[in-house]
Amino acid sequence: MPQALSAVNIHTVFSIKNRVPYLVDRSLRVELHRVLGGISRKLRCPVLTVGGVADHVHILSILSRTITQADYVKELKRASSIWIKPKVKEFAWQGGYGIFSVGHSQIPIVKGYILSQEAHHQTGTFQEEFLALLHAHDVEWDERYIWD
């Protein structure tokens, strides 16, 4: 086959260091989501949606065949940190992240989930949500290192 083709949909989740709610200002949060979408597009990872609340973000995108998951998240965090630091001097992303595969038929469900984050977090924390994602995807983790 002369072409390399790929269709890998991913749901990426990461939080602000220590879950500090620096994104309480809705306009700043929306702007950051746009910036994250732009960074992702520059990495040739088309964004399907970006959302989140005051202490974390969710990104549904199509992973390019030319970038690793680790490099994708590293660049998202690096470039968005540069953008937000003049606005929120103490801002920092947590060290880790979660990336979960999304089947094509599940895209509308995950989009809806990401876009309803504010309602979702009326009744649960980021930690509860993240653990539920790990369980749903059968990901093993070490409690000593998950909440850096």
Keywords summarizing the entry:
148 residues, alpha+beta, globular, 5 helices, 4-stranded antiparallel sheet
What would you note in describing this structure?
The protein has 148 residues and is of the alpha+beta class. It has 5 helices and 4 strands; from the N terminus they run E-H-E-E-H-E-H-H-H. It has helices at 26-42, 69-84, 107-115, 117-120, 126-136; strands at residues 8-15, 47-53, 56-63, 98-101. It has a 4-stranded antiparallel β-sheet with strand order 2-3-1-4, with helices on both faces. Strand 2 (47-53) and strand 3 (56-63) form a beta hairpin. The radius of gyration is 15 Å and the shape is globular. The chain starts with 7 loop residues before the first strand and ends in a 12-residue tail after the last helix. The model has no long low-confidence stretch (mean pLDDT 94).
* Helix and strand sequence: EHEEHEHHH
Q: Please report the total strand number as a whole number.
A: 4
Coarse structural class: alpha+beta
Q: Give the strand content.
A: 15-25%
Radius of gyration (Å):
15 Å
The first-to-last residue Cα distance is 44 Å
Report the average pLDDT across residues: 94
Shape: globular
Number of helices: 5
For the report, how would you describe the main beta sheet? 4 strands, antiparallel
Q: Roughly how much helix do the residues carry, as a percent range? A: 25-40%
- The main sheet orders its strands as 2-3-1-4
